[in-house]
Design brief:
398 residues; mainly beta; Immunoglobulin-like; Jelly Rolls; six-stranded mixed beta sheet; 10% helix
Length: 398
């Protein structure tokens, strides 16, 4: 115990001596000693549990993937290749049903027609397609004036590819003056509608101008006063075989025979008309072809026209032909000018014979060709159409 006490006294003295000397190196040594002591004490203590410290942000793991597992590479999107060619849709053209307009055979555009009168428009057309047209094909109303024309008119015969046909439509003119147009297309046997021109979409037309035509009755003979004197300049009945006659499809003989189903023209003197009266003079008896809406037409040679000339005739049906229903028409052509209608007149058996008198003074100085046309309104049965005393005259007074 003495020995232990001596050690403590000696230690105290050393410490006092060191403090009194103020040696900084001693203080540093003391610090090192104290630090060493502290570390020794801590090492002797049991290990403390380290609590995790919460960070303000969650760190992003940058640890490599587990061994043996590859990092997946990003999969690129497929690249769309540009088309190498442009495909254009096309419509297969209809080569079966194609048509070409050849000419208007009657009623040129702008023809003057009397109010409420019936006329027949005829076109010559060609089958330029690959299919044969049959009688189920038809001319159908398409647009324009909405009355007076039939909705459908059937073809009169078959037409092979490359062939032509004359198709007709019977139209009734309106009662009111003015210009009128009817447009028509063609319809196939399976209902396909087609027309003419580029794309076969254009119609054929009937274009007229409705105007009243003044009919001047023949003056009865009178015994006193100024008397009109008529001198005949051209007698159509006397020269009827100088004309060329046809039914639109074939030529007809002149004179014909009254049993010819293709139509005929003959001369009849002193005919008896539908009113039971017998007329004294020459008459042309014309009958259209024996088909529905049949026709007959005569082309006369040119006649020189002078001022004051007039066209006169009496139109009627043959006695006993109770089914007679026709359309009379006169066209003229001056030199190289287009064909023009002089007049159109409807005649039925129940009507009275009609006297016509048309001034030709506007044609003075020209050589003029005339056409006589008769068209059946429907059936041609008993259509014995008389042109009684058709002539060009000069009327003077004495």
């Amino acid at each position: 115990m003495y020995t232990r006490l001596s050690k403590y006294i000696l230690l105290t003295l050393v410490i006092v001596l060191l403090v009194s000397c103020g040696n900084s190196s001693v203080i540093s040594s003391e610090g090192r000693i104290n630090t060493s002591v502290a570390q020794t004490v801590i090492a002797a203590q049991p290990a403390a549990v380290q609590l995790p410290t919460q960070s303000a942000t969650t760190p992003i793991s940058t640890a490599p993937p587990p061994a043996g597992q590859e990092t997946p590479a990003p999969v690129p999107l497929p690249t769309l290749a540009l088309p190498t060619a442009t495909i254009t849709a096309s419509v297969t053209p209809d080569t079966c049903n194609q048509a070409k307009w050849i000419q208007d055979l009657t009623i040129p555009d702008g023809t003057k027609i009397s109010p409420n009168s019936t006329f027949t428009k005829t076109w010559r057309i060609q089958n330029t397609g690959t299919c044969t047209w049959n009688t189920t094909y038809a001319v159908v109303f398409n647009s324009g004036h909405n009355t007076g024309a039939p909705a459908t008119t059937a073809f009169p015969s078959n037409v092979p590819p490359g062939g032509t046909i004359d198709v007709s439509v019977v139209i009734t003119a309106p009662a009111t003056n003015g210009g009128y147009t009817w447009k028509f297309m063609l319809r196939s046997d399976n209902g396909h509608i087609f027309g003419f021109g580029a794309g076969y979409i254009y119609p054929i037309t009937a274009v007229i101008k409705v105007e009243p035509i003044t009919l001047v009755p023949l003056l009865p003979p009178i015994d006193v006063g100024i008397l009109p004197f008529e001198s005949t300049k051209y007698d159509f009945a006397a020269n009827y075989c100088s004309a060329t006659w046809e039914n639109w499809l074939i030529g007809l003989p002149c004179p014909g025979t009254d049993a010819d189903s293709a139509g005929f023209v003959v001369r009849r003197d002193n005919p008896k008309l539908q009113d039971g009266t017998t007329r004294e003079g020459k008459s042309l008896l014309t009958h259209p072809e024996w088909v529905t809406n049949g026709m007959i037409i005569g082309y006369f040679p040119a006649v020189p026209i002078e001022s004051g000339y007039r066209f006169r005739a009496t139109l009627g049906c043959g006695f006993g032909g109770s089914s007679c229903d026709v359309l009379f028409r006169v066209n003229y052509k001056k030199g190289s000018d287009p064909l023009v209608e002089l007049g159109t007149w409807s005649m039925k058996y129940t009507n009275s014979p009609l006297n016509i008198d048309v001034d030709l003074s506007s044609l003075a100085g020209s050589n003029v060709k005339f056409e006589f046309i008769v068209t059946a309104n429907g059936s041609s049965a008993q259509d014995w159409a008389h042109w009684f005393k058709p002539r060009i005259v000069l009327v003077t007074t004495t």
